[in-house]
Known about the structure:
The structure holds 2 protein chains of 2 kinds. Chain A is of the alpha+beta class. Chain A has 2 domains: 73 residues; 133 residues, no CATH class. In chain A, a hairpin with a 3-residue loop joins strand 3 and strand 4. Chain B has one domain: Rossmann fold. The mean pLDDT of chain B is 91. In chain B, helix 1 crosses helix 12, helix 5 packs parallel to helix 7 and helix 8 packs parallel to helix 9. Chain B has 12 helices and 7 strands. At the A-B interface, helix 1, helix 2, strand 5 and strand 6 of A face strand 3, helix 4, helix 8 and helix 9 of B.
Amino acid sequence: MARGNFKTGMSAMLENSRKGIIESSTKDTSEREVYKGYNVSNKSNDSEQNKGTSPIKERKIPEKTTSTKPEESASKTLISSSLESINKELDSKMDKLKEKQDSLEKALSFTVDTTKDNKTEKKVSIPEITKETEIISSPITIDTSIIDKIENKEPIVTKPENQNVPSTYNKSKTPDYEHDIIVGTNGKNYAVIEPYTNLTIVRDVKTSTGTTKEKVIHEIDGITMGRKGESQPKKNCTFRPECYDYVDKAAKFYGKKFNTMLDLIIREYMLNHEPQWYTPEN
Amino acid sequence: MTKIIGIINNKGGVGKTTTTCQLSYMLRMAGKRVLLIDADSQKNSTGTFRAKSEGEATLYDCLLAPDKYRVDIEETIQHTKYMDIIAGDELLDDPSALSKDLQSGMLRLKNMIDNSSIRDNYDYVLIDTHPVTDMILYNVLMVATDVIIPVRAGTYEAEGIVKILKVIKEVKNSQNPDINIAGILFTDIDDRTNITLLGRTLVQEIADQEKDLDLKIFDTYIRRSVAVSESQAMRVPLFEYKKNSNASKDYEALLQECFGLDVDYSNAIGI
C-alpha cells in the first residue's frame, strides 16, 4: 500500500499513533482479566478437574518495549496548545465542582447541642435555599404518581376473584395476601410471586418448526426481592407467558420497560406491604 | 465445505454489519446458499433483512437460554425473502450464562452447528458480531473457518486491530488452529484526506509485523458513500437501495476478490 508523502505535521501524528499502538500491543487487556477471574473461581472448587480447562493458553506477559519518543519539535506546539485548552476546561470544571461542594456542605451542615439533660439533640440548620442548592439537594425525585396511576387506571397487582390457583403455576395453595405478590390477568389467570423467590420470567416464542416454546426474558435473584439485610430460603417461581403479556401491556401503557415495571411492582410491594397494594378489580 | 465467516472487530462503527449484510446479499445473488447469524445485540442485520427478534426464537434461545428453555439451533432459523437468518437479540448483551463452564461455554455454538444439518444446507454462514470481546465473540471464533476484519482508516481503529489480532492469535494457538484471516477490509474510505492515508499506513505496518498470521489487506476497499447511511435509514440492503453507489460497486469487487464470485442480477431481490 502506498505510504505517500505526508504534509507538514503528519509525520508527527504518525509517530504519535505508532506510540499508541505499541502501548496497546504491550498492555494486557482487561477482558483477559475477566476470564482469568473465572479460572480462579473454578480452581477453588476443584483444582484438578478444572486444571487447564481454559482453551485459551496462558498468556505470557510481553516485556515492555521501549517506545520511541515522538519528535518533540514537531508536535510541541500542537500538544502545548491542547494542554492549555484542557487545563482551562479543567479549571472551569473544578470551579463549578467547588461551588457545588460548598453548597452541599451548607445543605448538610447541622449542629449538635449536648447541653440539654445530657441528651443529644440534633438541630438541623436549614440552609437558605438558592437556585443552586435546590438543584443539588434534590437531584433524585421519587415518582409516586406511578402508583396512583396503577391504582386508578390499570390494575397491576390484582386480588383475583377466583382464589383457586391454577395448577400450572408453581403454587399449590391459596395465595397468602399478607406475604405474596399477586400479578393477575383479568382476575382469572394469575401468578403468585412470593418475596425471596428466584423469579424466572418467560414468554412464548415461535420457532421455525411452528412450535411454541418458552423463552427466558429475565431472572431475578430472590435476595434482591427481600428487604436489605434479610435472608430467607430461596424458592423458585416461573412467571408465565400470560402474565408476562399482562405486565408487558402495562409497561407499554405507562411507557416503562418491562423489567422496570415488574421491579416497580415488587419494590413497592416490599416497601409498603400494605393491603391497598392489591387494587380491587372493578 | 461450508465456509463459516465471522465479521469481527472489537471497535464499533467500522462497518461490520454493513459488510455482513452486503456480502450475504451478494453471495445470495451469486447463487449460493447463505445463512446469516446475527450475533449482535443491536440486531441491525436482523432488521435489514426483515427477520424478527420479538416473538420469534433467536440466537439467544439456542445459545444462552437455560437448558430447560434452550431450543435447537435449526428451530431458530427464519426463512426471509432475502435469505435464512438466525436473528439477533437484545438479551445477547449478557452472555454470562456461557461463563459457567468456560470450556463448553466457548464451544457451544460450534457444537450446535456441528450437531445440526447447517453444514449440509448452506454454502456460507456469515456471522455478524458486536464490538465486544466476550464469550459470544469467542464462540464465533471457535467455529469460524475465516474472519474478515473491517476497519476504518484511523489511529484508534489501528489500535483496535492490534487488540482483535491478539484474540485471534489466542484462538488460533488453542482450539481453532485452522482459523484463517481472510483479510482486513478498509471501509468508509475517503482518499482525499491525509488521515485516511495515515490510518492505512498504520494498519499496513501492523500487518507487516504480524508475519505469523499471514495478514492480508484486501486490495478492494469500501469508499465512503452516503448511500450506506441512507440504506440503513430505509432499512433495506445497500444493494437493493442503490446498486450503483460507490459502496455497492466496491462490495461487488470484494465478492470477486474474496470469493472469486460474480453477482448474478437475475438473483437480485427487491431491486
